[in-house]
Specification:
outer membrane lipoprotein receptor (LolB), chain A; mainly beta; 13-stranded antiparallel β-sheet
Length: 261
């Protein structure tokens, strides 16, 4: 119910790994459900973020953002992403209502135009503000958005992981499949490979430097998204996580998009 790429972190309590039985599809689904279960109940979060855009030649540009997230019972999370710098993007904001089987809803506020623009479902595979993250990467990754398949157990470095594949149900997704490595102890994402509509490897997401909050919720403090096809990458550096800050539905409306600063 509560799984987003930004931050896309799979969390766990200290319990043994699940005992699985049945075909690969069942096992893959159960792994996804268990990862989802372990991140339920956080309520709301805020965090600050540095976004570093890097082109093929290694040249960088940086942006400062704030992320606010509200957990929604029996539906996907709501999130508000606000740019604070540099000046040319200050006040730009993205509002996301994530859902399960229904299409996500997203609106982008462009202060220079004083306009709120709805992101069409068939455009959600496009890059978010020039980064290597697509709009669909910014919504919470609800279990019902995919079908699953367990592939095998495999190590990432010295960490034992489950390797699963997930296949988007939404025909407008920019991906045909994703391969995700989840560590067996904490069910945290260690790596995700994204395959484009032609079935070719497009991007790899690598989270790092996890921290635990409220005794159970894991969040990555660093993420790297590498685009294998164009040589560009985007780093996200997270700081100042806060939980249960009292955010409400009224803080996640289209009207609020124009009042974020």
């Amino acid at each position: 119910m509560k799984r987003s790429l930004v931050p896309f972190v799979l969390v766990a309590m200290f319990v043994p790994a699940l005992a699985f039985a049945g075909p690969a599809e069942d096992k893959g689904l159960e792994i996804a459900k268990e990862a989802d279960r372990r991140d339920t109940g956080f309520g709301d979060t805020t965090a600050e973020m540095l976004m570093v855009l890097r082109n093929k030649k290694g040249q960088e540009s940086k942006r400062e953002l704030e992320i606010r997230t509200l957990e929604v019972e029996d539906d996907g999370d709501k999130s508000l992403t606000v740019f604070h710098s540099p000046r040319d993007v200050r006040g730009t904001a993205l509002l996301t209502y994530s859902h399960g089987l229904a299409p996500d809803e997203q609106w982008l506020y462009l202060p220079a135009l004083r306009r709120v623009k709805r992101i069409a479902s068939n455009n959600k595979s496009g890059p978010f503000m020039g980064s290597e993250f697509a709009y669909e990467d910014l919504s919470s990754q609800e279990v019902d958005k995919y079908t699953y398949k367990y592939i095998k157990d495999e190590k990432i470095g010295d960490v034992d992981c489950f390797l699963i594949e997930r296949y988007p149900v939404d025909k407008d997704s920019g991906y045909t499949r994703q391969q995700a490595w989840l560590d067996k102890d904490e069910y945290r994402v260690r790596k995700i490979d994204f395959y484009d509509r032609k079935g070719q490897l497009l991007k790899t997401l690598t989270p790092a430097k996890y921290g635990k909050f409220l005794g159970k919720y894991w969040r990555a403090h660093q993420m790297n998204m590498l685009n294998h096809q164009n040589g560009k990458s985007t780093d996200l550096v997270w700081r100042n996580f806060k939980f249960k800050t009292g955010l409400k539905d009224d803080d996640f409306t289209r009207t609020r998009l124009t009042q974020v600063l």
